Amino acid sequence: MQQLFYFFQKFKYFLFFLMLQFIAMTLTFNNLNFHKSKFVNSANSITGGIYYKISNFSEYMSLKSENEILAKENTRLKNLIEKNNSVVLEKDSLFTKTTYQQKYTYTNAKIIKNDYTTAFNFLLLNKGKNQGIEKEMAVINSKGIIGITENSSDKYTRVQSILNKNSRINARIKNNTFYYGTLKWDGKDYNTIQLHDIPRQAPLKIGDTIETGGKSTIFPEGILIGTISKVNHGNSAENKVDIKLFNDMSNLGYVYIIKNLYKKEIQSLENIEDE
Amino acid sequence: MNKPFQFILLFFFLLFLQVSVLNNIHFLGYVNPYLYISFVFFYPLKENRFPFLLASFILGLSVDFFSDSGGIHAFSILTIAFIRLFFIKIYFRKTSTDYPFFNLHSESFGKVFNYVTTLTVIHHFILFSFANFSFQNISHVLLNTLYSSIFTLILFFLGTYIFTKNQ
């Protein structure tokens, strides 16, 4: 017993150090797990509030580019309405019931903290549970996809960026809906992301547009991602394609959060099949 | 001036400087300084090390809360806070009786430079290894360590130079 007390007395700082290191390690490992990252994140009221103040302060710097993006999106949406109207006039019978069956709702939000330099990047939004934001919702802007909501407090939400090594998103080639792949990031360049496991027979050309595949309950079909910048013709096991993003991930402002209204129904169906 | 109060002030000053300004610099696209570790250099040497270790851990954890990085800042700052004594013994040849009189400003620049550089490089290397969390991109980790260390050291020595001149 004497020996034990002597041991603790001699190594008390080292043991204290080890205990704190263990806590830090646990938090690090939990942070990499999508379903366990509860404790250390910036979506609490203190850090969220401070980031909100900082972003209010620095928002004026990017007002001009933000306005340009909004004007472009407005033009695109107006064109879309015109196009849809003309289709409706020509073929009245095509106006089916499914048009009115709303599947997704959109909420707008502002990014108040942006990261793109580490291998595991997270963003922070200024909306939370009070505005109906929950886990696993899609986050996009007018140029393309941004990420998936991960953890929300009452007022703020943390988003797992597509620039995160744990991010997996279903994607396909535009105008060719047969071939699907998985979108991952290798942690190197924040403008380039990789499409894995696309079938070998798929016709891939540099400059082809990649969009979301709609094979999950999170992202709707056909949201833009980027263009193919490099095709590997080797015989590697995973057919890897480099994609240049449409979005400049270092400069993000206002975004949309997409909620799938049928998500619970789809998931309950999937659960029944498992049992 | 009241000593403990001074270090509480330093704690919050470094924390907010780090998360509001230095984390957003992104020099050349990705190089950031991590100046909050100067807390470890400024904190006085004492016989009882528990408050110092705990304060360093909490400072690192606070930076983690802001930058969504789990516990990597806490881990790396705690490591250099613990091994600080070892390098003080090596570079400055101090024993425990000298601790109350030890002051970084009264030491020669060469020794201080060696001491600060060693701890900064160790901290940055652990930090970037954990941030990367795989053996791929190891060159990325080493380059990041080099550039960020240079950036942090320039800011640290400029800062101490300016503040000691005023006194």
TrEMBL record, chain A:
Transmembrane segments: 13-32
Keywords: Cell shape, Membrane, Transmembrane, Transmembrane helix
Key word Transmembrane present: yes
Cross-referenced Pfam families: MreC
GO BP: regulation of cell shape
Keyword Transmembrane recorded: yes
Domain Rod shape-determining protein MreC beta-barrel core span(s) in chain numbering: 111-259
Coiled-coil stretches noted in the UniProt entry, renumbered to this chain: none
Recorded GO CC terms: plasma membrane
Function: Involved in formation and maintenance of cell shape.
Family named by the database record: Belongs to the MreC family.
Protein name in UniProt: Cell shape-determining protein MreC
Protein source organism: Polaribacter marinus
TrEMBL record, chain B:
InterPro entries associated with the record: Cell_shape_determining_MreD
GO biological process entries: regulation of cell shape
Transmembrane segments: 7-30, 74-92, 112-133, 145-164
Localisation: Cell membrane
Signal peptide: none
Primary localisation category: membrane
One GO location term (cellular component): plasma membrane
Bilayer topology: Multi-pass membrane protein
Keywords: Cell membrane, Cell shape, Membrane, Transmembrane, Transmembrane helix
UniProt family annotation: Belongs to the MreD family.
Protein name as it appears in the record: Rod shape-determining protein MreD
Underlying gene: mreD
